[in-house]
Amino acid sequence: MHILVLGAAGMVGRKLVDRLLADGHLGDRQITRITLHDVVAAAQPLDATIPVEIVTSDFADAASAAPLLAPRPQVIFHLAAIVSGEAEADFDKGYRINLDGTRHLLEAIRAVGDGYHPRLVFTSSIAVFGAPFPEKIGDEFLSTPLTSYGTQKAICELLIADYTRRGFLDGVGIRLPTICVRPGRPNKAASGFFSDIIREPLAGQEAVLPVSDDVMHWHASPRSAVGFLIHAGTMDTKAIGPRRNLSMPGLAATVGEQIAALERVTGKNVVARIRREPDPVIMGIVAGWPRNFSTDRARQLGFTTAEKTFDDIIRNHIDDELGGNFVA
Amino acid sequence: MHILVLGAAGMVGRKLVDRLLADGHLGDRQITRITLHDVVAAAQPLDATIPVEIVTSDFADAASAAPLLAPRPQVIFHLAAIVSGEAEADFDKGYRINLDGTRHLLEAIRAVGDGYHPRLVFTSSIAVFGAPFPEKIGDEFLSTPLTSYGTQKAICELLIADYTRRGFLDGVGIRLPTICVRPGRPNKAASGFFSDIIREPLAGQEAVLPVSDDVMHWHASPRSAVGFLIHAGTMDTKAIGPRRNLSMPGLAATVGEQIAALERVTGKNVVARIRREPDPVIMGIVAGWPRNFSTDRARQLGFTTAEKTFDDIIRNHIDDELGGNFVA
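ok -> structure tokens follow
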């Protein structure tokens, strides 16, 4: 089978591609070809035994999608997006890429016609929800995003459900928790500190914690995110019904619980590298974010996390990203 | 103040304009000018003491909105849409008018800049909800439409909330119940029979009832719909917060309760003009529709219906549309 990955140069995209190449199959079907698309060239995977094609173009360009669909990929993983902070800072760019780009893709799929009916896995976000929240956000809670990014994701969810209902494609939207521990360097995302306070101390670096220890948030590891994508790409979608967008399982943890887990896994020295420096702006942003979910539908449909506790998240990070080592 | 009505040639639009002209003011502000826009020319109101301008253009055309906004209307009533059945039959036309048209409008408002910040009242629909439902749909129930029309309305709701949050306009979306009794002739809308079984017998005509008597639905009179629009155009929006889209109050009634009310108000002869002719297609469509709501937010924000019982709805129709008379 031929798989198309949109947004392949991003962190989750890279990890997904690594997994696809390592597995060699998706579900019970052998992968014969993978196309990696992004606005910057995705890295050519080393030692790939499957033909991998790298395509670079602007996802927001109405003409970008058709050539990608010409070979009729059976599964499309759509991870292309600009992030929350950038969509808020640049209103036009956010709508152009996160909304118009997706709509062009859907229209291009529909335009192929002739029985083409690919599985489309869309990475949505818990940013489709906006405060005030119940203690746990359930599967029937409304989407009232408080960011333009969340608005764009919520709109794409509606479009994918309608295009699926009309028979143009077979869509599944998965709302990823915040990915933790996110590898790489600290960035300017307001949510960055949830990963920084784990990743940086493990690397012997200081990390800044801008919120209080009682802030709760909803996390999943990169390993879980890839697992959700694979499952969404292979599951029997008949069982989903018309509500095609699902909040993914995760772990609710307070910052204090994150830090306690870090201490259990690594010791006091590592934890001492976290510097508390309250930032009222970030505290204000984070106050509007989802904290906890009940994800019964996703669990019933077979989505599972790769971790049971936050300790597991830290251990998986040490194994997957640090070769089993950290700076004690 | 200057008021712009989009979709002014439709039934609700005409009734809104009649009310605005009769009142001469909106809230505590005198109306100095009204612009009526539609794809077909709205009728020039007779005896209007306020200047009324009629503009005809295609709402889906990106160039349509700017000229309408040039005189900077302070309140815009946006009722322009193609209806549910047509949006389902013609996928492209539905998205072009109901989604792209609204987006062009929002962008054109934003493009005016220079402190322009109009109140935008958007007529959404209970079609944003899709089965399965709880017994009553509450203010925090998710939007999972089962029609392209409902999808387009739900997307416009999200856009209006985001454009409001970003400070480009002051939007309020109101989800109208099914309007009953809808004046005019029977049409092909699947929901038409809810009005047909009242309006046609009152006019001495036979009406076909295609569903069973226990089918429950959510109704409001044309008088209530106009009242909702006026309130949305005048209310203090600070009290709403970021959740700018509200399910409007209405009356839940079964078809059997509608018929019993008709008999109470008019007698057995009128009711005898209803012919039961079950239609499995219409029964299937109606089974996916919302039946009942709790509309606490809208009520707390001052939205009220013009009727307490279905008997009131019938009496209002006889008064407003039939000059107080019916065929006994």
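The first helix of chain B runs from residue 11 to 23.
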